[in-house]
Amino acid sequence: MIVRLKQSTWAALEGVATEETTSRYRHSEVHRALLAVTESSQRGVLSLLARHGAADRARAFWIDNVIAVPEASSALVEELISLEEVLSVDDDTKVYLPEMESEMEATPKVTDAKPQGNIAALNTGPLWDAGISGQGVTVASIDSGVRWTHEALKANYRGYRGEGAAADHDYAFWTPKSTPITPDNVDIYGHGTHVTGTLAGSGPHNIGMAPNATWIHAKAFSWDGSASQSDLIAAAQWVLCPTKYDHSEADCSKGAHVISCSFGGNSSLTWLNPSVKAMRAAGALPVFASGNVNAFKCGSILEPAGSVDAIAVGGVNSGELYPSSGKGPGLDGHTIKPDFVAPSFAIYSALSAADSGHDAYTRLTGTSMATPHVSGALALLLSVPTDGSAADPLAALRKTAVEKLKRPILAPSSCGNTSYTQYPNNLYGWGLPDVCAAAAAIGGKCPQT
Fold first, then answer.
1. What is the pTM of this model?
2. How far apart are CA 13 and CA 46, in angstroms?
């Protein structure tokens, strides 16, 4: 069960967001502010759980004012509902990753260090040539696991300790129960390895946007592509303040700067929005898939992508909208969504079946595949050397995005009172990111090719 308390954490977040700080990132400040609220307001519930012998198995969160209580008896549920401070007691429902259809193919030949086509579509080449590839930035994915020994992913995994050495998953990998994992069983579903490859993969085929960013991962989704509400909240909390693999000794200084989330659900998934708000308050950038939905339906964008604090990503291919891409407006009925579009068709990236060779790569399609392109674009911009002034990578991407995109086919040409010809709009958002132009906009050096 999920016990949600009435006292909101949002006021505490607003206080953190307006504080003067010498850093873009406020992970520790957000943690302290939210913990002060939740520890105080959750005492009565935790006391009741202790009397019922349920405290040891309960999980109290600070990123949202929520307590997860597995296997709660009907008597306990009734008592919880009766507490004045409790807003609701609901089932710990599940969210599912999209079903995947893969196309196995021979490993492509790569003759130079240029990015592959879908990565190059965001004008990454000039940035790479200038030595800007995500260094110094920590990116996180919340998904089904990642094969950390994959040739395209091992070198910049935080837990990598050198060729032949065992990985150290402390502050680098999270699973709900800290059970032992191996490269062969960590991502049976395969989704997490693929999207993390597009986000931060390197290796011989240049599959990732930010190949020198340090990546960490929260494995909230299991072998069948499902995740519970409580595990997703726990994963969101961990990427802000990672712990050792056994869930001890949280260290917010090791939190992610960009958080890539290739999942979503219908409007009922608003329960994750407080966690997304906390990410933004901490200075982290949460990026979510707009969803694979009814091609002709407007206002179809999934949650949390539709929330004002999320950065939503739809699909585009050769300048044309991926018809099933989630369309705006957002949850409030007027916010432009998606924020951006990125390549989504037959994206070539890492597969969790092997470390190298034919079985180590595949092509997948969907907004899940589009999402890490934008997450990686933000990571690239965060690694751009500037004159020291505070640069806003999101604003830069919006300002410089490519707007000359085609009239949608097999999809509406207008949504939420916006046409595809005006930008931003509820089909393409601000457009297709141009990371080179965005880097120049924040004072970086990126010669256009």
1. 0.95
2. 23
